[in-house]
Automatic annotation (TrEMBL):
Residues 1-23, 41-63 are annotated as: Disordered. SUPFAM superfamilies: E set domains. Residues 1-20 have a biased composition (Basic and acidic residues). Pfam families: CBM_48. Gene3D superfamilies: Glycosidases, Immunoglobulins. GO terms for cellular component: cytoplasm. InterPro entries: Glyco_hydro_13_N, Ig-like_fold, Ig_E-set. This is Glycoside hydrolase family 13 N-terminal domain-containing protein. It comes from Chloropicon primus. One of its GO terms (biological process) is carbohydrate metabolic process.
Length: 207
């Protein structure tokens, strides 16, 4: 049963074709895709219902070059489309799902641009959103390229140092990276200047 205030619409043919192509569903007809996949809106929380192929779930996680993110955004109505007579101007599809959002267009367009800027910065820094999300694997002491390294997250810091009994508590400076992290390579390949059981801490200078 549908909840009050919800609306069902068939997905347009072009979107169905894109979805079928994105999932690699060879031989599947667009008409069947349109019949099985409907965009359901409830207020301003769009979601997908109907007999959507299970492969869609894996296609919308993370893929090379951000392709899967594009598929996911297309379904929730966040991929820009050309406006009639706009000659290159773009508008979010979400306004077709919920016209009431039109009065917030300026703010939504701003937030979408900020999202794209952050996504590009993440891909330039870490290669992909998936690699960025697993950054916790590279915090603290870890091995990188056969060398011991140390990384700390301190976005507001002006200076970060690693100090301990292994350097007579004098402090080794970490280098600032993107997105608020600091990093230090310790020693040459196969060697570690920090013996097992050493005592140490991080010195952080803030404004």
């Amino acid at each position: 049963a549908r909840r009050a205030g919800s609306e069902e619409r068939d997905i347009p043919g072009d979107a169905a074709k894109e979805h079928v192509a994105g999932l690699g569903m060879k031989g599947a007809s667009v008409s069947r895709a349109r019949a099985r996949a409907r965009a359901v809106t409830d207020g301003c929380s769009p979601r997908v219902s109907g007999r959507v192929p299970r492969r869609r779930a894996t296609a919308t996680v993370v893929g090379k070059g951000g392709r899967s993110e594009d598929i996911m955004l297309r379904w929730i109505g966040l991929v820009p489309r050309a406006t009639p007579g706009g000659e290159g101007s773009e508008k979010l599809k979400v306004y077709d799902i919920d016209p009431m959002l039109g009065k917030f267009e300026d703010h939504l367009e701003y937030r979408y641009r900020r999202y794209l800027e952050q996504l590009r910065a993440i891909e330039e820094s870490d290669g992909s959103l998936e690699a960025f999300s697993s950054g916790y694997d590279r915090m603290g002491f870890f091995v990188e390229g056969g060398k011991l390294a140390y990384r700390e997250w301190a976005p507001a810091a002006q200076q970060v140092q690693l100090i301990g009994d292994f350097n007579d508590w004098s402090g080794w400076d970490l280098e600032r990276e993107a997105f608020g992290t600091w990093k230090l390579i310790l020693g040459d390949e196969g060697e570690s200047p920090v013996p097992h059981g050493s005592r140490g801490k991080v010195r952080i200078q803030t404004p």
